[in-house]
Write a structure and sequence with these properties.
Shape: elongated
Structural class: mainly alpha
Largest sheet: 3 strands, antiparallel
Helix content: 55-70%
Number of domains: 2
CATH class of the largest domain: Mainly Alpha
Oligomer: single chain
Length: about 100
């Protein structure tokens, strides 16, 4: 729950920065604002990914190190968006890992 609160605070700060940039610039920022529309509730934790994929922590760590899985890192915490995990699964199937 604490991590969720921190992520919400970070998102609020990023939105404030975006508003300030819009005021100071005539550059279109539609792409940037779309990137900030991250639904915190849809992020998966490291353990959720391990359970979902049915892999061990050792395999998880190996896949992160080799780039098979690409987490969003907040300190030492790894988070994943559903679509990023689906992409990783697709890439792994194509490479014959799954």
């Amino acid at each position: 729950m604490e991590m969720r609160k921190q992520l919400i605070e970070i998102l609020a700060v990023l939105k404030d920065i975006l508003r300030l940039l819009k005021r100071r610039s005539n550059v279109k920022t539609d792409a940037m604002s779309g990137m900030l529309e991250l639904d915190i509730g849809q992020l998966m934790t490291r353990m959720a990914v391990i359970d979902r994929l049915g892999i061990s922590e050792r395999t998880y760590n190996r896949w992160v190190k080799s780039g098979v899985l690409r987490p969003i890192e907040f300190g030492n915490r790894h988070l994943y968006r559903e679509e990023d995990l689906q992409d990783a699964i697709r890439r792994s199937i194509n490479k014959g890992l799954l």
